[in-house]
Known about the structure:
Radius of gyration: 25 Å
Strand content: 35-45%
Distance between the termini: 12 Å
Largest sheet: 10 strands, antiparallel
Number of strands: 10
Number of helices: 2
Order of helices and strands: HEEEEEEEEEEH
Number of domains: 2
Amino acid sequence: MRTNRLVSIARISLTALLLLTLSSNTHAKVITFTLDRVLNTAAESMTGSFDWTYNEGDFENGSGLFTELYIPRYGSDISGLVITIDLTSIEFTLAGNFHSQEVDINLSLLSPLSLNQASSIDTSDDGTNYASKFSVFGFGTMPHEGGFISGSVSAASAVPNPDTIWLLSAGLALVGFSARQNNRRNQD
């Protein structure tokens, strides 16, 4: 009798722990954003996509991580870059200080990143400065310094964060195992 009571308490505790854990983690979402028709002033296409991870209801405090990227005159080596993504701009610089190489790109967005609409890149030029700038040199190609003539950043549909799936599976497995053990004890 005492064993059954302990098993019931353990099952309730595991279920409560599972629900608490899931409620704090299942609201994490990941949405993929893509660079659409991003052309620098040399009409070269910059492509890529990044994942924005955020808690449901708190999109503004999310964080971004590029998963693929191609920069004209530089290439696709994401590991060699420092990339800063916020709601109104995306910046790319070289990781380190090099005198003979430079990647200095800033994509200023006209509207903040959004789940519902594309954010256009600010392509304005006041004659002296570009709102969004592109500067790459020293990678075996001709250098280019200028701005952008088109582009936007748009979102795909949001999906639950796959990193939290294991919690649900493990929690349900523990509850099932506990119920099975309890049934075996009752049969004995």
